[in-house]
Amino acid sequence: DTGVSQNPRHKITKRGQNVTFRCDPISEHNRLYWYRQTLGQGPEFLTYFQNEAQLEKSRLLSDRFSAERPKGSFSTLEIQRTEQGDSAMYLCASSPWSALGQFFGPGTRLTVL
Amino acid sequence: KNEVEQSPQNLTAQEGEFITINCSYSVGISALHWLQQHPGGGIVSLFMLSSGKKKHGRLIATINIQEKHSSLHITASHPRDSAVYICAAKRDGNTGKLIFGQGTTLQVKP
């Protein structure tokens, strides 16, 4: 499968725990995006990488959130001290440098108890 | 007011009906996506438009740049079309980030 993959697909955690999600974009896609989608809403932009550089972060991304893309390939999104309000679907998308379209992964559904 | 607005929020149709979902945006864009999301599933890109009209099977997407409006049409709707349909605007600029509408939940009844 050469699409965008995300792991894990589901994560249930207790409030206060740290969680880390992984996104593997389509090979050679320079751009990588993280979005968050809460129930009944459209996704919201969180952050964007061009290769390994994190070029934009939404104000939704509090200091408990950190994202990395260390070698310009896969990316991780970590949430520290999770809160119930962090429960959502976390979506990753990638695109080539000059393309307009984005390819989405299946998402990681986080439930914070 | 959201930068990307969709209507209706919910839509129920009978199998075979012609369906239209509308999307209006207030920002400058370089392209507009129509996306499909099934319950518990990931997002699939249906169309990406920067002008005019595109057709794929029973799906048609149109965009009017001057009016900042796009529509997604489904002809001869089928229960398997039941899903959430989301429009997302790619803003002018270098990042390419998408601004999403809130989605339209479509249920097609047999």
Biggest sheet character of chain B: 6 strands, mixed
Helix content of chain A: under 10%
**Number of H- or I-type helical stretches of chain A:** 0
Q: How many DSSP helices of chain B?
A: 0
Low-confidence parts of chain B: none
Largest sheet data of chain A? 7 strands, mixed
Total DSSP E strands of chain A = 11
Mean pLDDT reading of chain A: 92
Which protein chains are joined by the largest interface, and how many residues does each one contribute?
A-B, 24 and 26 residues
Helical fraction of chain B: under 10%
Summed up:
Helices cover 0% and strands 50% of the residues of chain A. Chain A has 113 residues and is mainly β. By secondary structure, chain B is mostly beta strands.
Write structural notes for this entry.
- The complex is a heterodimer of chains A (113) and B (110).
- Chain A has 113 residues and is mainly β.
- Chain A is 0% helix and 50% strand.
- Chain A is built from no helices and eleven strands.
- Chain A has strands spanning 5-7, 10-13, 19-24, 31-37, 44-50, 53-57, 65-68, 75-79, 88-95, 103-104, 108-112.
- The mean pLDDT of chain A is 92.
- Chain B is mostly beta strands.
- Helix content of chain B is 0%, strand content 61%.
- Chain B has no helices and eleven strands.
- Chain B has strands at residues 4-7, 10-14, 19-25, 29-37, 43-49, 52-56, 59-64, 69-74, 83-91, 98-100, 104-109.
- In chain B, strands 2, 4, 5, 9, 10 and 11 form a six-stranded mixed beta sheet that branches. Chain B has a five-stranded antiparallel beta sheet with strand order 1-3-8-7-6, with no helix packed on it.
- In chain B, strand 7 and strand 8 form a beta hairpin.
- The radius of gyration of chain B is 13 Å and the shape is globular.
- The A-B interface holds A 31, 33, 35, 40-45, 48, 55-56, 91, 93, 95, 100-107, 109 and B 4, 6, 30-31, 33, 35, 40-45, 48, 50, 86, 88, 90, 95-103.
